[in-house]
Amino acid sequence: MRSGTGAGSGSGWVSRALLVVTAAVVCAGCGGHSNAQTRTQKPPAGIRVQLSADSHHPRVGKPWHYEVRVTDAAGKAVAARIHLQLLFGGSPVGQIGRHRVANGVWRETIGAGANQPFPAKARNLPLVFEAVVTADGQTKKADYPIMVR
Fold it and tell me: Does residue 105 have a pLDDT over 90?
């Protein structure tokens, strides 16, 4: 029987509440046991993107060759979408192009054929030639710093 005086009357329900919470925590760890093992699925191995070029110093009005290679973790070429752009201070300032490759390799020469060469206004600016590659459900960036001479 409870006392209606208020002194010490609330401590009983706190003890019971702690007992119920403790029992719930203990029971939560219990459960059926089986011999089945849970296997965590390994995330897919990442794609690798390699961006290479003639040099980090292309010349105004001259051809400049670059290449993008996309492979899986085993080094096998994979089909990919490649977006190439120039960045200045981290912001895009020029789009080179968007390409789909079946063999994992894109090669091009800026300043040859229909591709315009680097303009004089690009001279001595710290630019980044960037490839944003999507393959096998993954997207990776490869950056290649350049300074046009």
Answer: yes
